[in-house]
Amino acid sequence: xxxxxxxxxxxxxxxxxxxxxxxxxxxxxxxxxxxxxxxxxxxxxxxxxxxxxxxxxxxxxxxxxxxxxxxxxxxxxxxxxxxxxxxxxxxxxxxxxxxxxxxxxxxxxxxxxxxxxxxxxxxxxxxxxxxxxxxxxxxxxxxxxxxxxxxxxxxxxxxxxxxxxxxxx
Length: 169
Fold this sequence. Notes:
The chain has six helices and eight strands.
């Protein structure tokens, strides 16, 4: 487990299936996660059974727990050990758990893990320009905007710019 001040990051477990099913099938966040079709429980079950490690999978998904209750998920993706970089995505699932510093704490704990355990030097992320809360979160955690992809995502018929951010560890 990876510990922050308020949270714990832990590996996904078979018992997380129903929770992951609900989170992955929340249409309200699909535009953030680039999901366009529902996930079946069978697909998620196979994912949970096949996950090995970041070195073979090039990704890592961790559950964010607060007071031993899962409140979200943090993902590492596009892991490039040679270049010492990885992408980062984060979700605090329920609105009542947002704006309490849980995402910031999870991100800080993961940044330390990435630097010390994975020997990474750069974390990067992509954030839609209209997602002010995520932009604040990442900038507060030291990420800087390095580029803009104009009209990159189509959300409810509107084309939205996307920012590319990164932080050096």
